[in-house]
Structure to design on (416 residues):
């Protein structure tokens, strides 16, 4: 009996448990998610969260976590915050957690792997739980692109930039989008077609109230640009979804990067620049059952891979097959995919390269429709996916995203 238990733990720690039936089996040491929430996603520089910095976003999210998790904050063994552009992120994260009501005994760490930072935060917490370092943990994704715009890569020494791939790491993401469109023959027409679908799905989802269970209201101060006066507002829905969007209307938008061919990327078929935050509470199944908490899903594993920097958007096309092989399942075993829509060029390429049915991917729209707060997205996808799985009665979710400088990541989650 003891030997069987050792083998079971070794299998969990190495991620070698394979096959759909094995993944759906319930074990006391499973890493499960008991709460999945997010802020509304609002337009950077224009939306209701534009005057709320990262510390303010985290403060609201931590408060909502305490209110919604039904977990004593003192039980949280660690908090991991994924963020990309935030300067002094550790100060913001630690200060906001204390101000929200987490006791001084609860530590905080910060994770940055560009657009996968939120997923990496969840992976870090899951791994800590899995090896017994903590029993309960909180994974956060956050980004204020209003306060911290993406100004591109830093200057690097000549010895580094003399390497062509290293130099490509510093190039703007729009350039990589055009490279994908050109090298893999992704037309402007199909980019606009898939982007229109993202908007239309998000419109339907918002009108039907599908996001209501995942969005928690944020009460923040907004400054009137004309008078400079501040007013307190409560924000409770995404503001980037453009109702009535069609392929025809998107086709009229001019190219965003005419300096790079084939100049197919536009403000209508690329992810919106957005502010937002999201959180998932994670713990062992044993602990969740002990606390009487609902289990939304089980974290299985994550894969990360590197790809050619100049076409960084193709990352999911490599990370997802690695994930499925590691788990011992096929594409047909997956009920839903959440793949980040950084640019329509890379999103279309990844779906086609993998042979995925569009009916399984981003069923409620994606970043083109409601935005891509860089550090937030990895957790936001988990939140949206888990809630939609519950609504549909689905069982298996894969989340994935491309990563600046040429990488891809994917995560696997199973619902009881």
């Amino acid at each position: 009996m003891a030997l069987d238990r050792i083998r079971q733990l070794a299998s969990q720690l190495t991620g070698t448990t394979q096959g759909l039936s094995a993944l759906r089996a319930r074990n006391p040491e499973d890493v499960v998610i008991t709460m999945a929430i997010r802020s509304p996603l609002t337009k950077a520089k224009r939306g209701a969260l534009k005057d709320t910095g990262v510390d303010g976003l985290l403060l609201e999210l931590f408060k909502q976590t305490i209110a919604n998790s039904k977990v004593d904050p003192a039980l949280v063994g660690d908090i991991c915050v994924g963020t990309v552009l935030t300067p002094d992120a550790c100060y913001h994260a630690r200060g906001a957690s204390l101000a929200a009501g987490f006791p001084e005994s609860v530590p905080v760490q910060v994770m940055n792997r560009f657009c996968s930072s939120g997923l990496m935060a969840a992976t870090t917490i899951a791994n800590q739980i899995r090896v017994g370092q903590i029993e309960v943990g909180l994974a956060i994704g956050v980004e204020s692109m209003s306060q911290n715009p993406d100004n591109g890569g830093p200057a690097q020494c000549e010895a580094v930039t003399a390497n062509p791939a290293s130099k490509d790491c510093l190039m703007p993401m729009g350039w990589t989008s055009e490279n994908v469109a050109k090298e893999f023959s992704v037309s402007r027409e199909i980019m606009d077609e898939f982007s229109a679908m993202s908007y239309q799905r998000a419109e339907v989802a918002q009108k039907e109230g599908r996001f209501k269970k995942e969005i928690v209201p944020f009460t923040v101060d907004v400054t009137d640009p004309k008078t400079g006066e501040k007013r307190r507002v409560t924000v409770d829905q995404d503001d980037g979804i453009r109702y009535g969007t069609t392929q025809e209307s998107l086709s009229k938008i001019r190219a965003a990067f005419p300096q790079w061919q084939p100049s197919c990327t536009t403000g209508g078929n690329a992810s919106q620049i957005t502010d937002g935050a999201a959180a998932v509470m994670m713990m062992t199944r044993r602990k969740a059952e002990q606390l009487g908490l609902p289990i939304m899903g089980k974290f299985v594993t994550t894969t990360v891979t590197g790809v050619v920097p100049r076409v960084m958007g193709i990352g999911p096309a490599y990370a997802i097959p690695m994930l499925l092989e590691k788990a011992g399942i096929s594409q047909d075993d997956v009920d839903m995919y959440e793949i980040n829509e950084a640019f329509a060029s890379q999103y279309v390429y990844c779906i086609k390269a993998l042979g995925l049915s569009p009916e399984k991917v981003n069923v409620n729209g994606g970043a083109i429709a409601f935005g891509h707060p860089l550090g937030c997205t990895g957790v936001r996808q988990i939140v949206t996916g888990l809630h939609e799985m519950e609504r549909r009665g689905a069982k298996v979710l894969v989340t994935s995203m491309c990563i600046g400088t040429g990488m891809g990541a994917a995560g696997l989650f199973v619902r009881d």
